[in-house]
Amino acid sequence: ADWLSIDMPHKAYEGDRVVIQCSGEKNKNIRRLMYYKDGSLISTYDSASSYTISHARASDSGSYYCKADRKYFLFVDVTEETRSVWLTVQELFPAPRLTARPSQPTEGSSVTLSCDTSLPSERSRTQLHYSFFRDGHTLKSGWSSAELWGLTLWTEDSGYYWCEAMTASHSVSRRSPRSHIHVQRIRVSGVLMETQPPGGQAIEGETLVLICSVAEGTGDTTFSWHREDMESLGRKTQRSQRAELGIPVVRESHAGGYYCTADNSYGPVQSGVVNVTVRIPVSHPVLRFRAPSTLALPGEVVELSCEEQRASPILYRFYHENVTLGTTSAPSGGGASFFLSLTVKHSGNYSCDADNGQGPQHSEAVALKVTETPPKVRLMNGPHPCEGRVEVEQEGRWGTVCDDGWDIKDVAVVCRELGCGAPRHTPAAMLYPPAAEEAQPVLIQVALCNGTEAALAECEQVEPFDCGHVEDAGAVCEVSPSTW
């Protein structure tokens, strides 16, 4: 029997720990122990000891044997040699193959990368870690799964990809061949122009938002907004299928046709045209009365005029003491009128409102007094009923007033009697031609009013004795809304 023997496996896998044990009948007699591979010395020990391959490689495959120098008798040594044993180191797993699903991804889509390899059945429990790379950059390192999912790719991510599989001990690793992945861009289509508020119905003074969107299209998209009669209003480049451009304060001049374009490097695609109309909110309207005389009398027809100049179309409502009298529309804007046949009961406050769908705006209230007694004074030939030559009525005939002593107190009484506003001037009647006819009498020489009387007839008067029409008196009063 051989004095020296060798004990080792005939087969191992990459990364395995392989122990080669050479021993003698009496290990204590071994003076030197030598291990050989393929005829070459690989290690020497001064006593019996094993040789260990910590992480086997394919290059470790070969023929192994041992030699030993041992004590034979006193000072005599002999050399012993074992038989040869062949070790085969097998591949633990083949180089992985990288695949992408889908294989031809489009921009913005989710891609899954798979690093596929296989282990022998007897090493199926070996844990592998995976790393993924693109053009020299690490996407994921030490990943416990052979799949890298949820990867969103864009055109600029096109390039060469590969993966690496490695044992948890890092003793064995394999890298896949490089695979080229081309990320395709989807051209924009279905470009749509919308507005907020919807339908292009803008309101003056408020914000109008122009919204440009695409049904399809990936990558960076340049959105441009245009008005038909102008150059570009603005542009934005962003990675989305929708962009907005705001006009912070809309003016009437912003009305017109608008469209947008979208371009993701294949050329601009245009939307349809959206016609923007600017609705002007109504302002507070003004209510005025138009009557045959300065004082409202029963039986007369008075015209209530409500006017707001800018907005259209407008619906006007007329009120007496907050009770609706009627409504009138003005399709093209401007004012509207309501006619009222007066009775004494029509005295009171009147108002109107204007509404073009943006909410009604109300006028100031205006008072109207309907009197049963017609005035016995009038102002002739002036620009309005509250200015002109002063005439009074006595016993059914009308005559003039001499300007002797005529002052602002007298004018104040005339203004009050006519329902006009405050007194302003005491002009000569000659300013309001033509002059009174010669046949028309002068009825008052001097009016001695203290300014508080309700009518000129209540003032003390001096009968005429020496006055011609060249000395006729005039009066100017403020115009109140109820008299014009």
From TrEMBL:
<keyword id="KW-1015">Disulfide bond</keyword>
<feature type="domain" description="Ig-like">
    <location>
        <begin position="96"/>
        <end position="173"/>
    </location>
</feature>
<dbReference type="InterPro" id="IPR036179">
    <property type="entry name" value="Ig-like_dom_sf"/>
</dbReference>
<dbReference type="GO" id="GO:0006955">
    <property type="term" value="P:immune response"/>
</dbReference>
<dbReference type="InterPro" id="IPR036772">
    <property type="entry name" value="SRCR-like_dom_sf"/>
</dbReference>
<keyword id="KW-0393">Immunoglobulin domain</keyword>
<keyword id="KW-0677">Repeat</keyword>
<dbReference type="GO" id="GO:0009897">
    <property type="term" value="C:external side of plasma membrane"/>
</dbReference>
<feature type="disulfide bond">
    <location>
        <begin position="449"/>
        <end position="459"/>
    </location>
</feature>
<dbReference type="GO" id="GO:0007166">
    <property type="term" value="P:cell surface receptor signaling pathway"/>
</dbReference>
<dbReference type="InterPro" id="IPR003598">
    <property type="entry name" value="Ig_sub2"/>
</dbReference>
<feature type="region of interest" description="Disordered">
    <location>
        <begin position="99"/>
        <end position="118"/>
    </location>
</feature>
<dbReference type="InterPro" id="IPR007110">
    <property type="entry name" value="Ig-like_dom"/>
</dbReference>
<dbReference type="GO" id="GO:0004888">
    <property type="term" value="F:transmembrane signaling receptor activity"/>
</dbReference>
<feature type="compositionally biased region" description="Polar residues">
    <location>
        <begin position="101"/>
        <end position="118"/>
    </location>
</feature>
<keyword id="KW-1003">Cell membrane</keyword>
<dbReference type="Pfam" id="PF00047">
    <property type="entry name" value="ig"/>
</dbReference>
<dbReference type="Pfam" id="PF00530">
    <property type="entry name" value="SRCR"/>
</dbReference>
<feature type="domain" description="Ig-like">
    <location>
        <begin position="1"/>
        <end position="88"/>
    </location>
</feature>
<dbReference type="InterPro" id="IPR003599">
    <property type="entry name" value="Ig_sub"/>
</dbReference>
<keyword id="KW-0472">Membrane</keyword>
<feature type="domain" description="Ig-like">
    <location>
        <begin position="285"/>
        <end position="367"/>
    </location>
</feature>
<dbReference type="InterPro" id="IPR001190">
    <property type="entry name" value="SRCR"/>
</dbReference>
<dbReference type="Pfam" id="PF13895">
    <property type="entry name" value="Ig_2"/>
</dbReference>
<feature type="domain" description="SRCR">
    <location>
        <begin position="377"/>
        <end position="478"/>
    </location>
</feature>
<protein>
    <recommendedName>
        <fullName>Fc receptor like 2</fullName>
    </recommendedName>
</protein>
<dbReference type="InterPro" id="IPR013783">
    <property type="entry name" value="Ig-like_fold"/>
</dbReference>
<dbReference type="InterPro" id="IPR050488">
    <property type="entry name" value="Ig_Fc_receptor"/>
</dbReference>
<keyword id="KW-0732">Signal</keyword>
<dbReference type="InterPro" id="IPR013151">
    <property type="entry name" value="Immunoglobulin_dom"/>
</dbReference>
<keyword id="KW-0325">Glycoprotein</keyword>
<feature type="domain" description="Ig-like">
    <location>
        <begin position="177"/>
        <end position="277"/>
    </location>
</feature>
